[in-house]
Amino acid sequence: MSENGGTFDLVILGAGSGGYAAAIRASELGMKVALIEKNKLGGTCLHVGCIPTKALLHSAEVADAARDSETFGVKATFDGIDMAGVNAYKDKVVSRMFKGLTGLIKAHGITVVEGEGRLTGRDRVTVGDTVYTGANILLASGSKPKTLGLDIDGEKVITSEHALEMQNVPESVVVLGGGVIGVEFASVYRSYGAEVTIVEALPHLLPLEDESTSKQLERAFRKRGIKYELNTPFESVKTTDSGVSVSLQGGKALEAETMLVAIGRAPVSDGLGYEDNGVEMERGFVKVDENMHTGVGNIYAVGDLIPTLQLAHAGFAEGIYVAEQIAGLNPPAIDYDGVPRITYSEPEVASVGLTSATAQERGYETVEIDYNLGGNGKSQILQTQGSIKVIAQKDGPVLGVHMIGSRVGELTAEGQLIYNWEALPSEVAQLVHPHPTQSEAIGEAHLALAGKPLHVHE
User: Fold this and answer.
1) Domain 347-450 in the same topology as domain 3-142+268-336
2) 48 is in an annotated binding site
3) Which of 293, 337, 273 is nearest to 136 (CA)?
4) In whole angstroms, what is the distance from residue 376 CA to residue 363 CA?
5) What phi and psi values does residue 233 have, to the nearest 5 degrees?
6) pLDDT digits (tens, 9 = 90+) for 312-337
7) 277, 296 contact by CB (below 8 A)
8) Is 178 annotated as contributing to ligand binding?
9) Topology adopted by domain 347-450
């Protein structure tokens, strides 16, 4: 006999970025909400994604600063990486944020259900023997690392989740995949002292970014001693006594202690009852319309489960959107081009809006400027190289902002305002940027686009 877990305005399956954002917003709008999670509140982002990886990247930045301290006139010695200490620091950050989130969810009076839920009807989710009925259902079951069907042993062949728990730094690593996850981990491993080779089947690292940015990242990585095989599909891996032997198309083989499989994340949707209840799927993703609606009953889906940008902040936005949609607020649709994208490697890569190639495909006549950070005082102080590229419609608004350099991720805050508010280069050129900051480089690029360059040789 099934037990009745209660009736709710909204039952959410998954408490990651999309699920918990929907729960909080729905609760603010007066709804009675049940939030079902088999692991921990916060999902991938908080526990095995954004937060712990960025903690590793910050410790990597500290390691590089210690190594290079004499550049800045500071005598310091670098004695190596204490992985137990790194993990303690990372876990402390995660744990503090987890406590904060748990308190927040509790303060909103949201019913949290621990356990594995399945969709068992158009208006119900079952956990064990208990049925939770919802006037609306939100599927937010998230993602897991893709593995290509490889035998992941957690030691010689690993995913990002194993890499977050490493107890010692491998001497050499092959990183399979040159997207965001692969590039970030390659950066960490190199800062920690490992020999790193990235294998990418497409022609460039970060293939979704503007090609000019990708080329600059490749140059920067080459300087850092990070090797890469581009345009080279992976064929197979076999474990050896000392680690792994990785075979690439074309006959090349790479030997290393570890291979990190970082080819993206796949939706978690198998066996959760989605298809049984008429929800349409494609390659494991749940298909939705622009309102995040599945087309079945009052069932919605958000986050890594749907084929939109796999970013925590996109999940937040989608979760909030669904809560407001259910409440009848008729929120504006999300413009995914206007969602900032950041890779937290050294150097960082950050962008918002269209790439040159996409702008061309969409038929825009464009003008663009690539402002070199060599002319930016703060970047010189930080000893970083890179550029800020701005693409604008001819006689029209800015279509894209693409950046590379240490710490440029923070600059996407302004970049997204410029893109999303359809600013003209001349309007941004009027704004006074504080000196010395890297944000000045955004101002300078727009000054140049508006025809009045300051620190630029014409």
Assistant:
1) no
2) no
3) 293
4) 33
5) -65, 145
6) 999 999 999 999 999 999 999 999 99
7) yes
8) yes
9) Enolase-like; domain 1 (3.30.390)
May I ask the CATH architecture of the domain 3-142+268-336? 3-Layer(bba) Sandwich (3.50)
Q: C-alpha angle 375/68/217, rounded to 5°?
A: 50
pLDDT bin (cut points 50, 70, 90) of residue 456 is confident
Burial class (CB in 10 A: 0-12, 13-18, 19+), 362: exposed
CB-based contact 355:210 (threshold 8 Å): yes
Cα separation, 368 vs 96, in Å, equals 43
At residue 2 the predicted structure's pLDDT band, cuts being 50, 70 and 90, is confident
pLDDT in tens, 261-311: 999 999 999 999 999 999 999 999 999 999 999 999 999 999 999 999 999
> pLDDT tens across 393-421, in order?
999 999 999 999 999 999 999 999 999 99
- The residue extents of the domains of the chain are 3-142+268-336, 146-264, 347-450
Residues designated catalytic: 435
E-assigned strands of 2-121? 3-13, 33-37, 111-114, 117-121
Torsion of CA 277, 280, 283, 287, to 10 degrees: -120
- 200 marked as binding residue: yes
Q: Which residue, 314, 4, 321, 275, is CA-closest to 138? A: 321
Q: Return the bridge partners of 259, or none.
A: 157, 174
Give 146-264's CATH code, choosing from 3.40.50.1100, 3.40.50.300, 3.90.1170.10, 3.50.50.60.
Answer: 3.50.50.60
Q: Please state the rounded mean pLDDT for residues 145-154.
A: 95
118 Cβ partners below 8 Å, 6+ apart? 125, 126, 127, 271, 272, 273
Is the bond leading into 267 cis (omega within 30 degrees of zero)? no
Return the pLDDT at 384: 97
pLDDT of res. 1: 65
Q: How many residues does the chain have?
A: 458
Going by the DSSP 8-state scheme, the letter that residue 284 receives in this structure is T
408-443 per-residue burial string, b: 16 or more CB within 10 A, e: under 16: bbebbebbbebbbeebbbeebbeeebeeebbbbbbb
Tell me: is residue 183 an annotated ligand-binding position.
Answer: yes
The response to whether 177 counts as a known ligand-binding position is yes
